[in-house]
Amino acid sequence: MKQIVDMSMRLSAHFTLGEMCYSDTAANHKPKPIPNIPLKLHITALQNLVDRCLEPMRMALKLPIQVNSGYRCQHVNTLVHGVPTSQHMKGEAADLTILLLMYAKQYADYDQLILEHYKKGDKEVWWLHISCRIDYRKNRHEIKEIIKK
To answer: What predicted TM-score, i.e. pTM, was given to this entire model?
Structure first.
């Protein structure tokens, strides 16, 4: 039985399920796009992430927050070289622009903040990975930096 998910569903005043699940990798995959559709447990985790991390940061910043990567199905996670235990596959993580690091530290109830960086030729890419466990009492409040080669 195929699951029907309303991607226009609002998770908060400023975030929709669709933007938390959108993936350039999935949308542009050839020969056909990959459905990156979350299950109910993933939607619950995304709701928690938005409520405890993203919405408080958005309210403090008073500016839009762009989610570069949120929920990832296993296939998409493999294609983007995500780790097999990625919190993205649980709906517990999102990647944002690095300018949000100070807001995340101050306003989000996070599990991990990971400043990620990679260099490909002359191009340098930075992003902030933020995660929140569904059982937020187990959040570790870890801050790390990862440089990918």
So the answer is: 0.87
